[in-house]
Amino acid sequence: MTAAAAPFDPRTTLARPDLAEQALEGLVRADAYRAARPMRCTAPVADIHDDAVGGEPVDELIFGEAFDVLESRGDRVWGQARRDGVVGWVDRAALSEGAPPPGASVSAVSSALPLNALVAEARGDDLRPIGSFERDPLTVAERLLGVPHRLGARSSRATDCCGLVQQALYACGRAAPRYADQQAELGDEIARADARRGDLVVWLHPGAGPWNGHSAFVLDAQRVLHATGAHGAVVIEPLAEAEARYAAEGFSAPRFRRL
Predict the structure, then answer these.
(1) How much is the average pLDDT of 194-213?
(2) Cβ-Cβ contacts under 8 Å for 88 (sequence gap 6 or more)
(3) Could you give the CA distance from residue 251 to residue 71 in angstroms, rounded to a whole number?
(4) How confident is the model at residue 229 (pLDDT cuts 50, 70, 90)?
């Protein structure tokens, strides 16, 4: 296999046939290569879209997160979220030039800025210095009960299933990919009978696009905690009910992972 044919994930590779990030030259084939310009999100949250005009949200930036820009088109810029690697289009008005290292992150779910937002200095009870983390992702997720469900969102204001898992892991300083198939590779595979509080359960779906599954935390042997469109929010639900619904919708059998 040649370098140009390497199986890069288009969701997280800053490249198109006509343009790619300079560091990808020799790895991904494109007509032109360009150095990315660092910017940062200055809105509380900002959608990352799959198109320069309109388009569906495929992710979300949170205040202070870096976004590396490769192209401007109209009112949007195309680039890559540095924190979780997702590529897409963001409204230029939500960004400012430069991406200085943050000094703290938001630790409260009821703060003026979302959980895990990045700020310059640790001044306030709702902030924690960079490098200081919580210990239990599920405890973080429990604080988000009742947060509205919205596909593409990933904050304490609104979230989808994978966004909930990602933000809970971020708060604990853990690796946190954005999509269900990526989260299905986290940690170690375990048997369903061995699942316990804090484990991850993932249902995958063969459908096209980034939304290829559903992720949830195991609360106990009978229940999961997750963000679900079926209930419109982050909820606690019997595992058996969730499993029956996803099976009826064509999802695969659940995979259990020990984080």
Answers:
(1) 88
(2) 48, 49, 50, 55, 58, 59, 78, 81
(3) 37
(4) very high
> Residue 234 above 60 pLDDT?
yes
For 48, the token pair is 């990352």
- DSSP string computed for the chain: --GGG----GGG--B-SS-EEGGGTTTS--S-EE--EEEEE-SSEEEEESSSSS--EEEEEETT-EEEEEEEETTEEEEEETTT--EEEEEGGGEEE--PPPSEEE--SSSSS-TT-EESS--STTEEETT---S-HHHHHHTTTTPBB-TT-BSSSSB-HHHHHHHHHHHTT----SSHHHHTTSSEEE-GGG--TT-EEEEE---SSS--EEEEEE-SSSEEEEEETTTTEEEEEEHHHHHHHHHHTTPPPPEEEE-
Confidence of residue 91 (pLDDT cuts 50, 70, 90): very high
What tokens does 104 get?
């703290």
Q: Which residues, 6 or more positions from 223, have their beta carbon under 8 angstroms from its beta carbon?
A: 236, 237, 238, 239
Question: d(Cα 214, Cα 246) in Å, to the nearest integer?
Answer: 9
- Give every CB contact of residue 23 below 8 A, 6+ residues apart in sequence: none
- For residue 95, what pLDDT is reported? 98
**pLDDT band at residue 127 under the 50/70/90 scheme:** very high
Instruction: Note whether 189 and 257 are within 8 A (CB).
Output: yes
Share of the chain above pLDDT 90, in %: 90
Query: Rounded to whole angstroms, how far apart are CA atoms 37 and 113?
Result: 25
CA–CA separation, 19 vs 135, rounded Å?
Answer: 41
